[in-house]
């Protein structure tokens, strides 16, 4: 039941409020907020790579439809042959990156376990649905492929031997990188402001603002290309 509740309401209601934990005060992870932001960016970027590779190689609808767990077919190709939940792995990496960028032990200790619990509940609901719909085929897939940590054996062959649908990634995924990139930059600016007047670190501030502007322009271009039909999923 908790999984069904999470799958139905998490992204609509809980997800936006959960990001408020980045504002929770707590002991610092690192003495330099910009180092925390840079490390968080690298971790989040790795999660974005996983999401992009998952969508580009084999996109599926599994997270939900009409607020219910849903799957059109049992997909075991692409990154799904290495992890049963590569999109959620990517999401957790992005969330961990944002939490680290917040540079607060409180944020890391609260946010990461919270999201791990919610995603675990969602996955439990999805797996129950998939087992009911696909039966023995899903049980065999469950036996061969881990839930979280990917099988690295053959990963290079999977990436090299599959067609990458970049148009699909652009159309489906343009919101996500803008959200976490801008979010980390805003968090970094907030942490810098707590160190003293932002003018004392003018170069860093200008760089962070420039990154936000570039991210916003990139998002706008992708949005226009999608809405005008210039780029359509392949």
Question: How would you sum up this structure, described in words?
Answer:
The protein is an all-alpha fold and 234 residues long. The protein is 68% helix and 0% strand. The chain has 9 helices and no strands. Helix 2 (33-57) packs antiparallel against helix 3. The radius of gyration is 19 Å and the shape is globular.
Characteristic terms for this protein:
234 residues; mainly alpha; 9 helices; 68% helix
State the total count of DSSP E strands: 0
Could you describe the largest sheet, including whether it forms a barrel?
Answer: none
Q: What shape does the CA trace take? A: globular
SSE topology string? HHHHHHHHH
Structural class: mainly alpha
The low-confidence runs, each spanning 5 or more residues with pLDDT under 50, are none
Helix content: 55-70%
**Using only CA atoms, what is the Rg?**
19 Å
Strand content: under 5%
Number of helices: 9
End-to-end distance = 37 Å
Give the averaged pLDDT, no decimals.
85
